[in-house]
Specification:
Elements (H helix, E strand, L loop, with lengths): L2 E3 L20 E3 L12 H36 L6 H24 L10 E2 L6 H27 L7 H23 L2 E2 L4 H24 L2 H17 L12 H5 L5 H35 L23 H24 L6 H32 L9 H31 L4 H34 L3 H19 L3 H48 L4 H4 L2 H6 L1 H32 L1
Antiparallel strand pairs: 1-2, 3-4
Helix pairs in contact: 1-2, 1-5, 2-4, 2-5, 3-4, 3-8, 4-8, 5-8, 5-17, 6-8, 8-11, 8-17, 9-10, 9-14, 10-12, 10-14, 11-12, 11-17, 12-17, 14-17
Length: 575
Amino acid sequence: MSDKKVSRPCHHCRSRSASAPADTSKIHYEKFWLYRHCSSLQQRDRQAQKAGQLFSGLLAVNVVFLGSAFISSMIFNKVAITLADVWILLSILKVLCLFWILYYLLGTSQQPHAVLYRDSHAGAIWIRGSVLLFGSCSILLNVFQIGYSTILIHCKSRVEIVFPSIGILFICTQAYFLWHHSKDCIQVQHNFTRCGLMLTIATNLLLWLLAVTNDTLHMEIESQLREVEERFAGKAPSSHPHCCNETTLCTCPNTTICKVFQKGYILLYPFNTEYCLVCCSVLYVMWKNVGRRISHHHTPHIKPKFKLQGVVFGPLLGTSAVIIGACVFMMYQIQATSLVPSRQVFVIYYSYYIVLLPLMSVGAMIGTIIHALEKKELDTLKNPTRSLDVVLLMGAALGQIGMSYFSIVALVATDPRDLLNSLSLSYSVLLIFQSITQNVFVIDGLHRQRHSRTPPAKEEDTKEEQNREAYSQRRVSVLELGQEIRKASLSYIQTYSDLSWKRRALREISFFLVLCNIILWIMPTFGAHPLFENGMERSFYGYSTWFVIVNFGLPLGVFYRMHSVGGLLEVYVTA
């Protein structure tokens, strides 16, 4: 592999190797056998990079299609392909990913000049914190699944214990890898690293797909809980379409421990899907950064910090929304999880959303108008992290938008004049509108952040130096100089006051939307799922179909709220 010495590496680029002298740092240009005859080293490097991305992408596509074929066969033909077969395939993929991650940690990243650059925009603290949070919940989910299967070991396969055990090891290793290396721009073993990253992305996508489509354990738990409730109520166990003789025989001997594992599994189930989605986004940025060499102007000299200054109404309104939302959430959790959920709790839940969503939409529209009034040029510098943020915001919003449209069709087709149905219909329409307006505001703000991060003090210093040179050349009198300075000061104060109200409004709106998205992230994450629990859409589409729709849209909706918080914080900090 050809190397090229760099005489003066950028001071902002961090190398993971020991602090080597400046003249010994090396950039490893990529090679690919298809482009070995290219005369230009840089051109060969670019073509090799594109070829490496293409072949690693094809690897991921083939793995995803293979896994999807297994999962689809399990759904439509449970005799030929069972859930255990899918688990065995995913376990093999997890083991391969584990070997590659360990090789990266102990081998690739430890080579000399392996990480000459680190992407300051990648691996933000909030997204790495999300990896740890969702990873911890996913580990607990696997622990509950192991405990549940251990109690029923007499009628469960041993694969149901081995698979979550491998999952715990995979989650821990991957979370450590992403926490410490999410910013790496690896400069050695390019193609092998790309293939390893793409294999890990494909594995996480298949785990997410299985979690979305597999409702076997949910139906089993629902059948057992219904049987226990009917036994306590003094009724004979009724036959249910999801019940079968095998499920009836495979019942927990200790109902208390069984209910703990069952309730814990159902509560933590959405966190696993969130973990897979977050890991995919971080791994994709790492894949884009393989072989990337960051120039000096890509790294900001001054990194803005979060300061709660100059904002009053945003935190006040946002805190009120969080407190009221927390009360509604607790009330919902107490009543909706009972044997007979109260109709009133669904009315309160939807009413809260119907009041909050229009306020968020109006705030986002005002913020977009203020962005247009600022007349700032858009940042066109290449930034893989920002590009991914935009794609994730648009893609994740499709989850709750699609779920809302399915709900609208079901409600209009049944009885839209009913109070609860009309509230649910209004909720779905407002949710679509709020997602669109917030996306426009956040994406516009992200594309203006680079310009807003330019320190104004440096511009003022440059202007003052130019003014001093001009004054010295013209040799004006002291009186004229004082008058000119006075005019310039008045003009600057007027301009600053004109900009300050816009920045202040942007910070108020951004902070309000941050707090609102936090409470809208907490409520569905920790168990508030009225679209599944009110039974209207479920009775219209059927249990299995609506289960897939909700498990596809709900994790994307939760991921959208979480990702919106990060984008809105960027807009707030740089306003």
